[in-house]
Design brief:
The protein is α/β, with parallel strands linked by helices. Helix content is 36%, strand content 14%. The chain has one domain. The chain has 7 helices and 6 strands. Strand 1 (42-47) and strand 2 (50-55) form a beta hairpin. It is globular and about 85 Å long.
Length: 235
């Protein structure tokens, strides 16, 4: 006969531990099979025999529906900063990126101006701006950049807090949800199992906006937020 204490222990194993083991095994299997996407902004690679980081084209899937996902600009950065290099990170949205002509964006101008003013110095400008993002997206980008030996951060943001992911006028999903729900969803989308379930849910979800693809600022015209709307303060 099992003691009451051991019975409760076995019940705990059956109800909590075993399901966690099964879910963990399924998550590992999905990763091994390449199912889902890498949620990080930087992706390690090798270019010309050197270890580098490039921008992950799938990064936006953590914040946008697949049909409207925005991608980072092409970024190539040495995994180890070369001695004497002054590394600058630019954070922001479409204005920081230079959309619709990123080649003429702030990062390009800054590189040219610095090279002319300080010809003996070596500068590396990494522009992480992405169209239609806001602070919910910029925060994890900045967290990754904090580990990349940056010397200067330039922040040019604030235009999309209402229309970007989780904003009060967004068309990309939940509008102005509680912060705990935002954090929970973003953490869940790190997991391949959750990614798959959420993507299946998006296919069956009927959004009030009726937006099926990217149409620029036109998409937000039906979601204007009055000045006295309490969702503004929540955002």
């Amino acid at each position: 006969m099992l003691s009451p204490r051991r019975k409760w222990l076995f019940r705990l194993l059956a109800v909590v531990v075993l399901p966690l083991i099964l879910l963990g095994g399924l998550e590992l299997l999905l990763r091994l099979l390449g199912v889902g996407f890498d949620p990080h902004f930087f992706k390690p690679t090798r270019i010309g025999g050197q270890d580098c980081y490039v921008a992950n084209e799938d990064f936006g899937l953590r914040f946008f529906p697949r049909s409207m996902v925005r991608t980072p600009p092409p970024v190539v950065m040495s995994a180890t900063k070369a001695p004497g290099t002054f590394r600058i990170f630019i954070f922001g949205e479409s204005a920081a990126l230079g959309d619709p002509r990123p080649n003429y964006g702030a990062g390009t101008y800054l590189e040219v101006l610095l090279a002319e003013r300080f010809p003996q110095a070596k500068f590396e400008v990494v522009n992480t701006g992405i169209t239609a993002i806001n602070s919910h997206v910029i925060l994890p980008i900045a967290q990754e950049c904090s580990r990349q030996s940056g010397d200067l951060w330039l922040i040019y943001m604030g235009n999309n807090e209402m229309v970007g992911p989780f904003g009060a006028a967004t068309v990309f999903g939940l509008q102005a949800p509680p912060l705990w729900l935002i954090k929970t969803q973003l953490e869940m989308k790190r997991l391949r199992l959750a990614q798959g379930l959420l993507e299946v849910g998006q296919k069956f979800q009927k959004t009030g906006s009726g937006v099926a693809g990217w149409h620029g600022m036109e998409m937000f015209m039906q979601n204007q937020v009055p000045p006295n709307d309490p969702r503004r303060q929540r955002v």
